[in-house]
Amino acid sequence: MQALQESNEKTRQELMRYGASQVNFYPSGIYATVKWANNSEAIIICGVNIIETVIPNPYNGSYSKNFTSVASERIVFMYPTGENEKAANMLSVMMGSIRTNTAWKNAVDNFWLAIRQQSNTVHIGKIRMMDEQTRQIGNAAIKQDSKI
Fold it and tell me: Would you list the domain boundaries of the chain?
């Protein structure tokens, strides 16, 4: 949960930079033991984050809400039938032992951040172009009215 909360805070800061006025997170998850048709069992873990983003509309004072769902953890750990406790202990050790190469993680995170920033820059550019076109149309209409 701590890692999820840290990730949520980074996401919140980024979305606020892109113009969101409010960002809410609704994290949840499931931990289940299932039995397969082949007589094996599995522990299934799935973490889900629902992100609610409130975006103001500067043109008319209204706002819109976007909802995004992200499955952040998806784990299926299969084991022989009847070894639930042993499997739970083993999975716990494995999950506690995972270490991510920080250089690799930073490179991947920075790559996707650059993609999102470029997409936002293109989006803002289109909005500015449309605003300029609207301004020119308005000025032309005012000039046309003053000639009549």
Answer: 1-98, 101-148
Asked whether residue 143 carries a pLDDT value surpassing 70, the answer given is yes
DSSP string, 86-142: HHHHHHHHHHHH----HHHHHHHHHHHHHHHHHHHHHHHHHHHHHHHHHHHHHHHHH
> Cα-Cα-Cα-Cα dihedral of 7, 13, 14, 15, to 10°?
100
Q: Which residues contact 97 (CB under 8 A, 6 or more apart)?
A: none
Sheet strands side by side (includes 63-80): 22-35, 40-56, 63-80
Q: pLDDT band for position 91 (50/70/90)?
A: very high
- Is the per-residue pLDDT at 105 higher than 80? yes
